[in-house]
Amino acid sequence: MNEILIQDTTDFFKEKFGNSPSKTVLSPGRINIIGEHIDYNDGYVLPAAIDKIICFAFKKNNSNTAIIQAIDLNESIVIDVTKEEILSEVVWTNYLRGVLFQLKLKGYEIGGFNCAFSSNIPTGSGLSSSAALECGFLFGINEMFNLGINSIDIALMGQKAEHWVGINCGIMDQFSSVMGLENKVLKIDCRTLDYTYHEANFVDYSLILFDSNVKHSLFTSEYNNRRIECNEGLSIIKENYPEINSFRDCDVNLLTSLKSKMTDNVYRRSLYAVKEIKRVIQACVALDNGDIETLGKLMFETHEGLSKDYEVSCAELDYLVDLAKVEEDVIGSRLMGGGFGGCTITLVKKGSENAIKGKFTKLYADQFGIELKIYDVKISNGTSLYKKN
Ligand code: GLA
Q1: Which residues, including other chains, have CB under 8 Å from residue 26's CB and lie 6 or more apart?
Q2: Cys bridge to 294: 36, 39, 136, 286, which one at CB 3.0-4.6 A?
Q3: What would the CATH number be for the domain defined by 2-199?
Q4: Distance 95 CA to ligand 1 centre (A)
Q5: What does residue 85 show for φ and ψ, rounded to 5 degrees?
Q6: What is the tally of helices (H) and strands (E) in the chain?
Q7: Active-site residue identified among 173, 211, 309, 318
Q8: How deeply is 62 buried, as exposed, middle or buried, from its count of CB atoms within 10 A (0-12, 13-18, 19+)?
Q9: What is the band of 219 on the pLDDT scale with cuts at 50, 70, 90?
């Protein structure tokens, strides 16, 4: 499937710009096994890059102008790369403008270039198409102009670009899009950015993404609110226990002792963060030991926390997880990504995949009148240059 995307992107570039691209970049979306909403809370996360990608074709054009074509939208923009970037009303362009803004901020000088890109990452599904866009675009510019930016800085600058657009996100999406490895999940320590790779072996189970096919508009404002609420929780903890700097160093008893000093929302957000940080550590050990039943149980617990305490779920996602809970052949499921719509990530016994997919599709349509989308993903490499075989 990706070969066709790459060929189509290359053909489009040739047709539009009259020559072949000098660099072709593949930039993936990501899944996350467990560790949700704790990348910005000094936690650990367990994501992986997937085989759904954005393909970019690039070539310098010896001018000061970047001409960028979004093939799938049939829209293009022309940007003077010597000028200061400002936010545009055309939303997709802001992720790219954000990258150019970061480059300028850090003193990198670039010239003009032509670029065309096309994607098969579903948007609004919690698979981080925006991180793939930022990081793939920056990766290509870095290659074309030999800027020498290392992979982790590409991820960090991608994250800053996303902040510039208005979402105060953590580092998980950009980091996993850039640093992913085939058949490995990444355990990232979001406090230090240390990371380790772990075998993505789910033994007798398959990972399936069920896409609720809804995206509630609350996403950006509520996402940013959660960060504010968590910061408030942490500052109350610090006022009382100055030696504690992070939810990571906190336990449930300590937090409960401060309950009366917090609003109910701030308490529950903090409680979720403290518990989820501990769950990821247990989940990673379970994965390493091939104990997929324990991993699945932890995923159900995460969903419960995200739905009841963190309040980033919605009726559609809760319904999909409730369906999963009563199926004997499904051992774990939870909402994945920021929430308020998008996908659940679900562990289904091998051999039962088709039966479960069929059943969920029917029940979901009966309940909401919405078509359930389903993705089988392969865990793949992070952002890379495409080299023809
Ligand atoms: C979004 C953000 C990430 C992370 C997840 C929730 O995908 O971009 O940084 O916070 O939500 O885990």
Answers
A1: 2, 6, 53, 54, 55, 56, 136, 383, 384, 385, 386
A2: 286
A3: 3.30.230.10
A4: 16
A5: -80, 140
A6: 11, 13
A7: 173
A8: exposed
A9: confident
Identify the residue whose C-alpha is closest to ligand 1 atom 1: 338
Kindly indicate the confidence band of residue 389, based on its pLDDT and cuts at 50, 70 and 90.
Answer: low
Out of 30, 173, 302, mutate this one to test ligand 1's pocket (max ligand atoms within 8 Å of CB): namely 173
Q: Provide mean pLDDT across the span 193-216.
A: 97
Predicted TM-score (pTM) of this structure? 0.97
- Catalytic (active site) residue 173: yes
* Pocket-forming residues, ligand 1, beta carbon under 6 Å: 36-37, 39-40, 128, 169-170, 172-173, 337-338
Within 10 angstroms of residue 148's Cβ, the number of other Cβ atoms is 8
- Give the mean model confidence (pLDDT) for residues 92-118: 98
Query: Ligand 1: which of 32, 39, 50, 95 to mutate, most ligand atoms within 8 Å of CB?
Result: 39
- Residue 258 CB neighbours (<10 A): 18
Is residue 184 over pLDDT 70?
A: yes
Q: Tokens 């479960």 label which residue? A: 356
Contact 214, 316 (CB under 8 A): yes
Question: Ligand 1 atom 8: the closest Cα is on which residue?
Answer: 169
Q: How far, in Å, is the centroid of ligand 1 from the Cα of 227?
A: 11
The token pair at 228 is 């504010």
User: Quick one: CA dihedral 335, 375, 331, 181, positive or negative?
Assistant: negative
pLDDT tens digits, 267-324:
999 999 999 999 999 999 999 999 999 999 999 999 999 999 999 999 999 999 999 9
Find the helix packing angle between 264-288 and 292-304, rounded to 10°: 170
Q: What is the distance between the alpha carbons of residues 209 and 128, in angstroms, rounded to a whole number? A: 14
